[in-house]
Amino acid sequence: MSFLPYAVGAWLFVIGLWGVVSSRNLVRTVLSLTVVQSATYLLLLGVGYRAKGVAPIVADIPTTSNLVDPVVQVLVLTDIVIEATVTALLLALVVQAHKRFGSVDPDDLRPLRD
Amino acid sequence: MTALTALPVLVPFIAGPLLVAGGYFAPRWFNDSIGALAAIAVAALCALLAAHAAPHPFAYWMGGWTPQHGFSIGISLSIDVLGAGLAAFCAVLVTAALVYSLRYFEAIEGLYHGLMLLFMAGMVGFCLSGDLFNIIVFFEVMSAAAFALTAYRVEERAPIQGAINFAITNSIAGYGMFIAVALLYARTGALNMAQIGVALSGHHTDPLVIVAMTLLFAGFLTKAAVVPLHFWLADAHAVAPVPVCVLFSGVMVDLGVYAVARLYWVVFAGPLGPHASAVRAIFVAVGVVTALTGATMCFLQRHIKRLLAFSTISHIGMFVCGMALLSGKALAGVAVYMVGHGLTKGALFMCAGILLHRFANIDEYDLHGRGRAVPVAGVIMAVGALLLAACPPFTTFMGKSLLDEASSAAPHYAWLIAVFIVISAVTGGSVLRVTCRVFLGWGSKEGPAHAIQQARAAEEETSETGGGRDHTPLVMVIVPAVMLLAVLVLGLVPGAVPGVERYAAQFVDHGLYSAWVLHGARVALPVVAPSHISLSDYAYGALSTVGALGVAAAGLFGYRLRGLRRSWPAQRLQAAVWVLRELHSGHIGDYIAWWSAGVSLIGGICLIALR
């Protein structure tokens, strides 16, 4: 079992967070968010990996085959659906922000400053 | 009955998208009635589930995939009275918000009703689910609907920013929870909470479990808006339409605390059992910081919706402290207080809505004395303020008394009583100050100079309802009045509070949960000696009420004490307050930096303290 997917997953999570923190453009912020989420895909698939496992399509393979875990793949699919929704919603908001503020720099969006 | 278990989730999941798709073409009365009927149906179904689970809690397995010999690979809805009760409470608040919306919005499309139903579907599924992954999916469903509702007035500037901050913070919290699920699945091979709990109990804590726990709790506590994960809440509340704020403050944030409590007792109580005192200390610290930060910020606001939002943060801190005491009695106190607080806060937001509807303004100083035109809203707001201050002997007071008794029973934590009194006094007092200034014209007309920005933000709130009017529709007064009446009555219903205590005792029993979920055991309700409200509880309640009057007076007439303001301690205090205000910058990058720092810090402490 390789250590690599976990290391890359952790790296993606942290670098994505840094992208959100440091971003001067909301489109980049939203894309950084998808980088954070990529970490979850990688980690989930890494968890389900089995050495020499085949794809879990059990229709036409012998029942004794070594399969990778299908549950995590389903979780990743759900995860992707959620990401698509949230990313679409956020990008729509960024378009609106550009229309109303004339800018997509989070520094210029400050009507809510306390 | 068990065959109907999935209906409270299915009904809004079917009705919601239909309204989104077809509501544009349908007349308004059709959208209004379908929305309200669906919400009432869900409330009734959840109440039925709670009644059915009253003698024995039960699990419903999708597709009949019941556990074999106590081992489950299926997906369950696990119904107990507190979970189903909270779901019913969500649906009741959605009903109230939709009825209030009948006259609040001049024009509203089916999209709004559809999103409200989807929001409710997420919340109800969240309360009923017994599967960890499904809880997180429902969390995301509820979040996505909430983001869209926050940005409902998308033609304006402030809602866009508020929704972006809300969406990014809560999405990152959600992704952290996905990581946690992957880690727990890798360790236990299970997604059902009861199954994970069984697999973990009997083991020691290790870094993997601690990291998973930190990410899960951080995710739910972001929804609950615990400092320093709370920055999104005030921004979202300030800009979301008023009926949506009723749900955000009334119940959505509570769900975060509910999930943490559920996960602690079902999943983590086994490995963390030997570390209970450290867990208690960490949660109490987080809760107290949240409560005091929220109370301070609440007092400083002049934008009335933001003020109410910070008061919610403060009360969430109180709930986290209550949960942290790790006893059934404290949890019962939190549950009772949540109902009282949710209804009270909802009614207060509706009063803010009345002001917004009438005057197209939500700034405390701009509205100085103008509220005399709607005296009945003033009465409702004043009663709400006193209930927020836990005035005896009503529901909020009952909840707070249980918390007080649980604090004095827990070793070393009796001082929490003082914190609770301060929170009640400051938040109740701040609302009372607004009431007196707006509805009676007391205090100064000129606001503090440093809050001009807020005043400008408050002025932007014009198009939510279509501008100022010369009358207030009756239904907008009746709904908050009925909600407050419920707070006055519910806690005094004989047997209600002792009943909650017994169900809370069932909730906090780690072994019991897996018995009824995985083995289908018919577990009996634990017998708990009901607490009696003692004289000291009344004294604390009276103290917080008098404190609220004092805080209100200080907020109204404190400006006359110029000499005191120039003194050294007052100047230092103002500097500290300035720093606190600057932290709430409205910049999403800052918020996520705080989020990351907070989660890392708490995770680091857990890794050291819980080994």
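qc> Chain A touches chain B at residues 9, 13, 17, 20-23, 26, 29-30, 33, 36-37, 39-40, 43-44, 47, 71-72, 75, 78-79, 82, 85-86, 89-90, 93-94, 96-97, 100-101, 106-107, 109-114 (CB under 8 Å).
qc> done
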